[in-house]
């Protein structure tokens, strides 16, 4: 039995093709954009971390090894 192929609906007057998107194709990028915008807007209130200085030294050594 041959498989059916879906042909897009064209409007004869305009020649345009109708595109139907699922709801999440619009909602997910909008939510991701809003979350990133909130992260950028809240970065002015960031404070320095009070972590163990050994982590900073480790990161400095890794950076030194990678860069040269």
Round the Cα radius of gyration to an integer and report it: 26 Å
Figure out the total of helices: 2
Which shape, going by the Cα principal axes? elongated
Order of helices and strands: HH
**In percent, how helical is the residue content?**
40-55%
Q: What is the first-to-last residue Cα distance? A: 63 Å
Category from helices, strands and their pairing: mainly alpha
Kindly state the number of beta strands: 0
In words, what does this structure look like?
With 68 residues, this protein is mainly alpha-helical. It is built from 2 helices and no strands. The protein has helices at residues 24-41, 53-67. The protein is elongated and about 70 Å long. The mean pLDDT is 79.
Question: What's the quick description here?
Answer:
About 50% of the residues lie in helices and about 0% in strands.
Q: SSE layout and pairings?
A:
Elements: H1 24-41, H2 53-67
Descriptive labels:
mainly alpha
């Amino acid at each position: 039995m041959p498989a059916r192929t879906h042909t897009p609906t064209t409007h004869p007057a305009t020649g345009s093709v109708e595109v139907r998107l699922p709801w999440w194709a619009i909602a997910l990028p909008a939510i991701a954009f809003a979350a990133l915008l909130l992260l950028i807007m809240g970065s002015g209130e960031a404070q320095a971390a009070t972590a163990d200085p050994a982590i900073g030294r480790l990161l400095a050594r890794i950076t030194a090894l990678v860069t040269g």
